């Protein structure tokens, strides 16, 4: 497997690449993102198109045009797969944490509000 130095590979995501040898589409278990270190995703709170930085530890660092910049714990991401996050009340929590001086608030299972 050759690695292009200008790309960073993110494990755990699935991307489809066309191989030059066979022209066949090949699913691989990682995606190569540009060095900007931001990949497109949907906001965990409101599902808007957002970007996230490469994962650091058990948090995702999300930049949503509507919710702003926040970090969300991996446990909450898991919980949000089976339950809907309450958008207005979670944004209120984010606003409160920012008002308290936390520029990039971290949403854990304590802060998140479900519908
Ligand atoms: Zn959002």
Report on this structure.
The chain is of the alpha+beta class and 115 residues long. The chain folds into 2 domains: 1-35, no CATH class; 38-107, no CATH class. Helices cover 17% and strands 43% of the residues. It contains 2 helices and 7 strands; from the N terminus they run E-E-E-E-E-E-H-H-E. It has helices spanning 74-79, 87-99; strands at residues 7-18, 25-34, 38-42, 49-56, 59-64, 68-73, 106-107. It has a 5-stranded mixed beta sheet. The chain has a two-stranded antiparallel sheet with strand order 1-2. Strand 3 and strand 4 form a beta hairpin. Mean pLDDT is 78; it is low at 1-6, 12-19 and 23-29. The structure holds zinc ion. Zinc ion is lined by residues 43, 45-46, 48, 64, 66-67.
Biggest sheet character: 5 strands, mixed
Biggest sheet strand order reads 3-4-5-6-7
What does the radius of gyration come to? 17 Å
Distance between the termini: 45 Å
Helix and strand composition category? alpha+beta
Helices and strands, with pairings:
Blueprint: E1 7-18, E2 25-34, E3 38-42, E4 49-56, E5 59-64, E6 68-73, H1 74-79, H2 87-99, E7 106-107
Parallel strand pairs: 6-7
Antiparallel strand pairs: 1-2, 3-4, 4-5, 5-6
The chain binds zinc ion.
Keywords for this entry:
115 residues; alpha+beta; 2 domains; five-stranded mixed sheet; two-stranded antiparallel ribbon; 7 strands; 17% helix; disordered N terminus; binds zinc ion
């Amino acid at each position: 497997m050759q690695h292009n130095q200008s790309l960073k590979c993110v494990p755990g995501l699935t991307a489809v690449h066309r191989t030059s040898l066979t022209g066949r589409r090949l699913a691989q278990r990682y995606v190569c993102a540009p060095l900007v270190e931001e990949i497109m995703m949907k906001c965990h709170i409101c599902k808007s198109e957002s970007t996230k930085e490469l994962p650091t530890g058990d948090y995702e660092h999300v930049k949503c045009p509507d919710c702003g910049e926040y970090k969300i714990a991996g446990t909450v991401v898991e919980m949000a797969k089976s339950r809907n996050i309450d958008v207005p009340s979670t944004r209120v929590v984010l606003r409160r944490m920012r008002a308290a001086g936390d520029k990039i608030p971290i949403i854990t299972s304590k802060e998140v509000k479900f519908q």
